[in-house]
Amino acid sequence: MSSDNKFVRSLIESAKQGNNAAIEQLFQMNLAKIYAFALRLTANKSLAEAITKDTFIEAWKKINLVRSDASLLKWLNSIAVYKTIETFRNKKSKNKADHKDFKELESKCELDKYIVVLPDQERMIFVLNKVEGYTLEEISDMMGIKKDQVKEQLSIAIDSLEESIPSIKEENVLIEKLAQLQPEIQPSAEVRDGIFSYIMDEKIREQREHEKIAAALAEKERKENQIEEPEETKELFPEQVVVKPKREFNINFAVVKKVLYGIIALFILIAAYMFITAPSGGWEVISMTGQPELNGKKMNQDDGWLPEGNIQTDANSSVTFAIPKIGRLLVDVLTNTSRTKNDQIKLDIGQIKKFEGDAANVLTVITPLANFTELYKGGAFKLSVTDDNMSKLIVESGWVVVTVKEFNSYVPKNFGCLVMKGKYAIPYPLDTTPQLINLIENFSGVTDPTIGTILSLVTKKESLTLWHLLQLVSSENRFLVFDKLDEFVPAPNGVTKEGIQGLNKDMLSNWRLEIELKMD
To answer: Which of 24, 272, 356, 490 has the highest local Cβ count within 10 Å?
Structure first.
């Protein structure tokens, strides 16, 4: 039996130690293969879904039985075969092929539609031998029937298929047809969710049982070791009071006057400096469409956006401002936003766009769930807030730092991120696959079970995404994320696995800067 590669074997060992991410990644790597296998064995979609789910649950329960020199996929296949045989034995009526299922799955090869109409045992033997490559001896052991019977049933299956497709009598044509079969078919989301929901429920149940046992043992130990401690004896003698002599001070009023004059002069200089260097009170309007409102009144072209001023636009209006030392800002349609006393922007709903250009200061935007601040001056970005307070950031140039619950996310050019209640702002490249974007945007932290799937889908371009995940996963999963990131962007000198495991801030910062250099 062939063994898996080094990476898969390391995942298996981690899974044996109870690592949830390793288990999920192993299962995710094989889910579509097992479902395709079960679908051909049963010729029935609902049975295949049930067998796939039962196979992975059984595999999770018996993961410690996987040998290091064995193939995980073949082990999973053997479980699926046993589950299929058990299903057929328990099924009262004969299993009938559901051609609609296969039409919906859009099989690329006509061979599939003839495989599914074979009788159960003939179909299973043909699939095991010709599609999956098992020997007659292996099939005999798996199905619990004699080798001669396996050989006979296989011959009958081949004859039946040759009647339907005469060209496969030539071995090279049969091999070509077999190669066209889909090796992987994704099951419905309910199958995957059912597997991992079961595992998580069992994990939680086990944890609660362990907590109950630990609490009972701790209570027993506390009662056994309880010893009455004697009360502390207090000193019967009061502390001696020492009376210190009073000091006399002589005030030099001339010196005090000079100091006061100096302080007043300093305040005047500071005020003058702030007045000279401060930006103009009103942010000037550059262009305007429709009828935006300023503080509840129709806005004019010569109006300025003063501190604590509120801008509202409807579906037909927008306004662009020139902000001294920051640049141009568009307040888009259907937006409600305000300027704070500190020259920041409070975005309640709608969308704004900051344009690229020379700048002396950075812009900060406050939303209901996060703060967005430029890391470097003069960048460009779009930021929107929906009516449920969800924020979406797209950075066109420069970098933006997103702060959610004191956690900083760094979002560079051509990256985006989503901020939702109860989630973290994890950046991702805008050209990331939709499946991976969905997993990243919905990642909820330490207990999120999708980290294994994420690790199986990320590529080098998502290195910065992995850097953020390092800080959000559990300590047991941090090693897996470290290894994946180190594969894409090797940890720089001075950055160690142990240091990252302990979330050393300097090491994390140095690694992020290394990623930034590689991106440029």
So the answer is: 24
